[in-house]
UniProtKB/TrEMBL annotation:
This protein's name: PGG domain-containing protein
GO cellular component, one term: plasma membrane
Position of the signal peptide: none
Region called Disordered, residue ranges: 121-150
Membrane topology reported for the UniProt record: Peripheral membrane protein
Biased composition (Polar residues): 122-132
Keywords of this entry: Membrane, Transmembrane, Transmembrane helix
Pfam families found in the cross-reference section: Ank_2 (PF12796), PGG (PF13962)
Boundaries of every PGG domain copy: 544-656
Length: 714
């Protein structure tokens, strides 16, 4: 475990691929395969077997389609292939590997090339050279090889008698047992005790943050080690301090700093310092703790690497501190030639850790938003760029390799766009390679908060809504296209997804000039025709779901109606044969029974009629906008009322029948009649929420409670 800690960098989110720095390919390969399968198994098949290349037959000869000939299935196939390639490229953090791999056009080619590189490397490493395998090329402060040779193989039986149990005790934090072993042979205190060349201090420092592990390190340093032992390096050139920093063991770090403060400035694999690894592992407090100690020795590469590590792992507070201390970081670019703004455009989660400085020192941003550190960072970077660059330089900076405003619009990063556009309003008119603005992106990806900016620009919106992209699509055509799966999944159930799509289409239609509503795109389709074609399958799924729900609910309502009708004609307590009246007619419990039974029958009958009207509906597109959702709401309300009334009738019947003989029976039954009612509410709550959200709340998406454009008052 210890020797592999720093060779595979893991992201702090299940959505981020494991990073590959050209070390430990086998472990990275397994991790990447698992990650890809968990994301989408189809992506793994593309990486493993290659993409499905769209082809056509011309004069009996099969050839690849051009992009202009792609149909919807072809586009989806190519999109999946591009996504698979993108994932692999994003995982490559070694610039040399990235440059060598970049020219490969498919994910399978990249995957095979990485496999081939590793195979060649293994062949070279297994070729007989000299007797020893050397560590990194620069000066290496290595422990002694008393128990293992330089290849990591045991030299004698002492390895199994001493090193193996010592390793286990260090992992467990069992100091008393480890101390006994160390006393048997003092060479163990600074000897390699496993492959990868870790010492007992390396193992203990990275074993955990619990009290017993801290105690283990404290006693080991006090009784056996001197300050020079803290600088001993493993095979990768990492000291034990790196392990403590990466695991976030603050007490262990402080103990080591107290003995030898220079350990914080020691450089390990890739020449990075411990603070870089702490940031890479998302150890916020640790990164802050080491930042002030280490920054005096930072090179330009150190500043850039730590800055991007902080952004990638969400340590925005530290990234903001660095950006204020070194403004030129606003122009820095990572291995993928992206600036910090490019990275921040895609991610808008706030950091969980700030320094005391930034808790009292706040950069003012949009007053209508929560003052999150991530947007303060965006504001700082953007202000630096705008103040120190010309108009052409600004456009050039944010246009390569892509424009971050469009990435932000796609994911709905409102705060990011608010800062950029408020600082440079002309960005509203910026277009991508498809001649689409951020408003077009917002409609295409169903980002209502971004789309609402169109209501803030006055009559200028009349110009944007008339813009046509390279495919001849107007803004309404983009609303007519089916939403991406991530946007559709905001609501569950095909019927409510159809409702949400209709809400978007009708909202965009309101702002379109009449002459553009009937305009056709490059396929010769109007927006209405495109909507029908794109949503054919969704409408069928919605119809099937609605019918199935109505049939099941109608069956339940019918059973209730039958039961309560039978209860009404077989009166509890019986009838006086002489007078023909119920025996308990004048009792309050009988009155409750009569009213609740009648209410249950009437409401269940109403539910039957409502669900029947759903079953015989025509299921046109417009029906899913209001008619069918409202019918379903009223039907479920009637069904719920009938169930509640039926349970009240049951409880009152028990009171009538058993009250005089057994007092506890009716009371006990009455208490439990609430259980089915509560169970119905609990099990159907999600359905209720989705119905209310899609029918009522979604229509309020276009009534914003905050503005994107703002001006701070002095």
């Amino acid at each position: 475990m210890a020797e592999n800690l720093m060779t595979i960098a893991r992201g702090q989110s299940i959505r981020e691929p494991p990073l590959f720095d050209d070390r430990n390919y086998t472990e990275w390969k397994e991790h990447m395969e698992t990650f890809t399968k968990s994301l989408d198994f189809k992506l793994w098949l593309i990486i493993k077997n290659g993409p499905n290349v769209p082809k056509k037959v011309v004069n009996g000869i099969e050839e690849e389609k051009s992009e202009d000939d792609f149909d919807d299935e072809d586009m989806k196939s190519v999109q999946q292939a591009s996504k698979a390639r993108h994932i692999l490229l994003c995982a490559l953090i070694n610039s040399d590997v990235y440059k060598e791999i970049l020219h490969f056009k498919t994910a399978k080619q990249i995957w095979d090339e990485l496999e081939n590189r590793d195979r060649i490397k293994n062949v070279n490493s297994s070729t007989p050279q000299t007797n020893d395998v050397e560590p990194r090329s620069d000066q290496h402060n290595g422990p002694n090889f008393a128990f293992v040779d330089k290849t990591g193989n045991p030299k004698n039986n002492d390895f199994f008698k001493l090193c193996v149990p010592l390793y286990k005790h260090a992992l467990e934090g069992n100091w008393e047992e480890a101390k006994k072993i160390l006393k048997k042979d003092e060479r163990l205190k600074n000897a390699y005790i496993a492959s990868g060349w870790p010492t007992v201090l390396h193992i203990a420092a990275g074993a955990g943050v619990g009290e017993k592990h801290v105690h283990f390190v404290q006693r080991l340093m006090k009784e056996f080690l001197d300050e020079g032992d803290l600088l001993l390096e493993d095979y990768n050139g990492n000291t034990a301090f790196f392990f403590a920093a990466a695991f976030g063991s603050m007490q262990v770090v402080d103990l080591m700093l107290e003995m030898n403060r220079s350990v914080a400035n020691a450089r390990g694999v890739k020449g990075f310092t411990p603070v870089h690894f702490a940031a890479l592992q998302g150890r916020c407090e640790m990164a802050w703790h080491l930042y002030d100690i280490t920054k005096p020795i930072f090179t330009e590469d150190d500043w850039n690497q730590l800055f991007f590590n902080c952004i990638n792992t969400g340590l925005y507070g530290l990234a903001l501190e660095m950006a204020e201390a070194k403004p030129e970081l606003a122009y820095a670019r990572d291995y993928h030639d992206e600036t910090a703004l490019h990275l921040l455009a895609k991610n808008h989660s706030d950091s969980c850790c700030q320094s005391p400085h930034h808790q009292s020192h706040t950069i003012m941003i949009n007053p209508g938003m929560k003052q999150e550190v991530v947007y303060q960072l965006v504001n700082s970077l953007w202000s630096t760029i705008c103040k120190t660059s010309t108009k052409d330089d600004i456009i050039d900076i944010i246009s390569k390799p892509c424009q971050p405003i469009f990435a932000a619009a796609e994911v709905g990063n409102f705060g990011f766009l608010s800062e950029l556009i408020s600082g440079y309003p002309s960005l509203i008119w910026a277009k991508d390679e498809k001649e689409q603005t951020i408003i077009h992106k917002a409609v295409k990806y169903r980002q209502a908060s971004i789309y609402n900016v169109i209501h803030e620009i006055g009559c200028q919106k009349d110009i944007i809504v008339t813009m046509v992209d390279t495919s001849g699509n107007t803004l309404l055509h983009l609303a007519a296209q089916i939403a991406p799966p991530s946007s559709l999944e905001l609501v569950s159930g095909a019927a409510f997804q159809m409702c949400l799509e209709l809400v978007w289409f009708k909202e965009v239609k309101k702002i379109m000039p009449p002459s553009f509503i009937k305009s056709t795109n490059s396929e010769g389709l109007t927006a209405g025709e495109l909507f029908t074609r794109e949503h054919t399958q969704l409408r069928k799924d919605a119809e099937s779901w609605m019918k199935s729900t109505a049939e099941n609910c109608m069956l339940i309502a019918t059973v209730i109606a039958t039961g309560v009708f039978a209860a009404a004609i077989s009166i509890p307590g019986g009838v006086d044969d002489a007078k023909g009246k119920p025996n308990y007619l004048k009792k309050p419990s009988f009155l409750v029974f009569a009213i609740s039974d009648a209410a249950a029958f009437i409401s269940s009958a109403a539910a039957i009629l409502i669900f029947l009207s759903i079953l015989v509906s025509r299921y046109a597109e417009s029906d899913f906008y209001k008619s069918l959702p409202l019918k379903l709401i009223f039907g479920l309300v009637a069904l719920f009322f009938s169930i509640t009334s039926m349970m009240v009738a049951v409880a009152s019947a028990f009171f009538i029948t058993y009250y005089y003989d057994s007092d506890w029976v009716p009371g006990f039954i009455s208490a439990f009649v609430c259980l089915p009612i509560l169970l119905f509410i609990f099990l159907q709550f999600k359905l209720w929420y989705v119905i209310m959200y899609s029918t009522f709340y979604c229509k309020n998406l276009f009534k914003p409670d905050k503005k994107m454009l703002y001006v701070l008052k002095d």
